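## Example pair
The file below holds two records. Each record gives the amino-acid sequence first, followed by its structure token line.
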Amino acid sequence: MCGSVNDLARATLSRRGLLAGTGTAAAALAASSGPAEAAGAVPSRAPRRADGHRTQLVLLGTSGGPAYWPGTTRAGIASAVVVGDRFYLVDCGSGVLRQARSAQLGNASHDTDGPLDALRGIFLTHLHSDHVVDLNNVLTEGLYNGLHLVDRQVPIWGPGNRGAIPPLFGPPPAPPVVTPDNPTPGTREMVDLMVRTFATDYNDRAFDNRKPVPSQLFAGHDVPIPAERLADPNGDPCPRMSPVTFYEDDLVRVSATLVQHAPVFPALAFRFDTEDGSVVFSGDTGPTDNLVELAQDADVLVHEVIDREWVETLLPEPRTPAQDGLFQHLLHAHTEVTAVGAVAEAAGARTLVLSHLVPGNWPEHKWRRARAGFSGELVVGRDLDRIGVGRASRRRR
């Protein structure tokens, strides 16, 4: 979810209107929910299992946006692609390291030697705070959670430098530019800056505890999107392109494409191909042909989703021009629950998994409307769910 939602809402709504909208949302939620789903609580059930599958999708956190939604225990957006005894992180939302241990990834039962001993890569769809806020925890506290045991440098892949600040939303005056000498660092620069910020800790751990230093553990990389697709960050928010393959090891091949999450640019979707099948992550996006091409015939499509009904309660009619601009902004940068099924169907995906749910405390039955227009299996994601890819092996049951 766009990180500016709360501030923009406060700027465009009167206090009375905002309170009325919030009250309407709460009343509608209470009226439409059963006792177990009141206030957006997730119904109790054990996480889905995927026994026998060598390749698995693990949902570590399914909440969308920087808001810590009341009435839910969903962690921030993060997922893992597990292949055998290794895993690859996709986004690093709030709580990702604890969730990786809860999911029993790597050597999770050991106090300090897991779960990151099995980590082989980190992939960031874009650099909004809700997708990267706990990356630093993985890199610093990871020294005492297995990262020090990885036998190779862990790559951290994500979007590069935007190259220009985004256009001003709403009327002037414009706010001051943060770090005007480099206002939009990309993934490689961000990781380097994190290391500089926490150099005191890294040096203490190295000199006192003899832990490896960052250059021995990880490195940031910008996904090599063709330069001509990145030339106008404030123009076409999602230029048409075909996927590019940028990472491959003995277990996975990873491809990326641009998606529509303006004004964030570049924003990426990822596809992981293994011997067992494919998993695609939409990242934050409105519907786009780029994603449909990337996700062609995918076994699993993990897609973000927003509910228009919630946006309407946040910005009720009648809306001023500024409020309507925010309303359209929220919907165009994301995919509505009633539209996501058609995206998955166009891609020919076999399973559609909903994650990055906005709002994160909405009752589950509202998300099941994503089934409209989709002929495959729908999974409304919950934290720690596992979804198998390909056929299960009886030997692994």
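Second record, same layout:
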Amino acid sequence: MSREQRIRVDEILRQPGPDGPHSVEELRAGFRQLMARMIVPHDRIRTSPTTLGDRPALRVEPTEGTGPGPNGGSGSGTILYFHGGGWVFGSPETALSLTGNLVARTGLGAYSLDYRLAPEHPFPAAIEDTLSAYRALLDRGEDPAAIVLAGDSAGGGLAVTTCLAARDAGLPQPAAILAFSPGTDATRTGGSMETKEGVDPIFTRAALGHTGAMYLAGADPRHPLLSPAVHADLTGLPPMLIQVGTNEVLLDDSTRLAARASAAGVDVILDVTADAPHVFQAFAGVLDEADEALDRAALFLRQRIRAGGATRRTTPDTAGPTG
């Protein structure tokens, strides 16, 4: 990452807004405006509106010739993506730089879910929607070993908690979790909440408290589906890749999630990029480290889907004779 690139991204993210707490309408409009500046690989993807689990979704597919194989095209797997935005703002459209780049790099198709947002629909509405979407993929016959759950920020947290909810509901786990700077601690007890204050060009404790209160709506922040990094039993979750930058007050949401997952026997990769801001991968085409991180994420997804499919195919042959 060049110094000039870092400075430019930091300047973009630090552009001043209105003083004081922002209204929901201001938060949503400001986020749409920011994310509209991100580069989307329109020439390598096609999109169409659809529904999944009774919620609107955006279907994102690779164009012909796109993907890692010799002929490109759609791979045999599905990315179920959850956008960021503090559970209060954001949409499949604001996350299209991320989903589009993952689809273009993997050749896999994706569904980006338009889950319900707070304060109109506080916890646990978002998790109800994401679990319903995952269940809908299973009900239509998709192999869980060919599904990966991915998301950024609040959506990265949802990728984790959806797997917890699926486990507790007796559903099979997907092949993998990919989380970009996930929000996984509603208690805000990580040390980085203090040490990265001011270093983080996006968030402050006060700003996180403002949107967090809308989502919690009085719920106990220690609930495992609100703070999995510190209060959930992560046993049985699929392999996960967590990518995070060091310039984040939410850095410890990722580091503690990784440590807790590892202690629970989960295969986990913690991928930390120095001097990078929250969800820096959205700056693909602007920030070298964003493109490099997305390449690593794409490789992880392809490997996990291939590994899951191979395991499923070989199981009947290796189980031995019966009867």
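Notes on the second record: The mean pLDDT is 92. The beta strands are 45-52, 55-62, 78-82, 109-113, 147-152, 176-180, 240-245, 268-273.
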